[in-house]
Amino acid sequence: MSGFNKNISAFIGCDCEYNEADKVIFGAPFDGTTSYRPGTRFGSRYIRNESYGIETYSPYQDKDLEDFKVFDGGDLDFPFGNTEKVLKMIEDYEARVLDDKKLPIMIGGEHLVTLGAVRAAVKRYPDLHIIHFDAHADLRDDYLGERLSHACVIRRCHDLVGDGRIFQFGIRSGERAEFLFAKEHTRMNRFDFGGLESICRALKDKPVYFTVDLDVLDSSVFPGTGTPEAGGVSFDQLIDAIITVGCLTNIVAADINELSPPYDPGGVSTACACKILRELILAIDAD
């Protein structure tokens, strides 16, 4: 099938054919609205390259990627300077994967890429709910006059799904207006994952889009990101939270985003992102 050719540089253990796959990972290497430090366009490439430094087996879940059918479609090829076209390309790719009854997992890129994926998911699942891990609220209506910005991505997703369907965790940064908006329109848990399990159980019969901004991690653990924020969660806390969401909810699509490899030359952040992606893939039940 055109556009779904086998990727010769796949994430470890994700090298089955598209037609056989239950899950499809793909990269969205875009950082055209990054407000502080660019570089997330390199995230998916680095994650693939460095994934061979980890194992396919997860001791956290006693599962192995080799026992699952996962296709890596590579990176989408984006134009420069056209944010809306980039979002449409993501939406179209995501929609094709969903139409084929497979579960898409996107690797960003900056967080705005989530909007393209959510646009596709909400068309297929009108009752879509969103679970959002992040340091930042991302609820600005605009950033310096621009409504399509990674600082506004969850606000734009709210435009699509409405009140009571967005659940935010780990948030520790944002302007006052964002926190006031959250009180009225989203369910926000500041600083950590308190209440996550009960919310997941309440959503067990609902379609869920799961988005993980990797800067939810403390910057001492994950310095390789565009907008680092001190005071985040630990790696173990994030892994436990991802497994909770994966095991207790009906995830229909997911992403990880905001790895910016140039800001961690030692590669620790990339190695961390590789394990997080592995655990996310394994935690989601694609049936």
Task: Please sum up the structure shown.
With 287 residues, this protein is of the alpha/beta class.
Would you kindly provide a written description of the structure presented here, covering whatever features stand out?
This protein has 287 residues and is an alpha/beta fold. The protein has a single domain (18-283), classed as Ureohydrolase domain (Arginase, Chain A). 32% of the residues lie in helices and 18% in strands. It contains eight helices and ten strands. The chain has helices spanning 43-50, 83-99, 113-124, 153-161, 176-185, 196-202, 235-248, 268-283; strands at 23-28, 57-58, 63-64, 70-75, 103-108, 129-133, 166-171, 187-190, 207-213, 250-257. It has an eight-stranded parallel β-sheet with strand order 4-1-5-10-9-6-7-8, sandwiched between helices. The chain has a two-stranded antiparallel ribbon with strand order 2-3. β2 (57-58) and β3 (63-64) form a beta hairpin. α2 (83-99) runs parallel beside α3 (113-124), α3 packs parallel to α4 and α7 (235-248) runs parallel beside α8 (268-283). The longest helix has 17 residues, at 83-99. It starts with 22 loop residues before the first strand and ends with a helix. The mean pLDDT is 95.
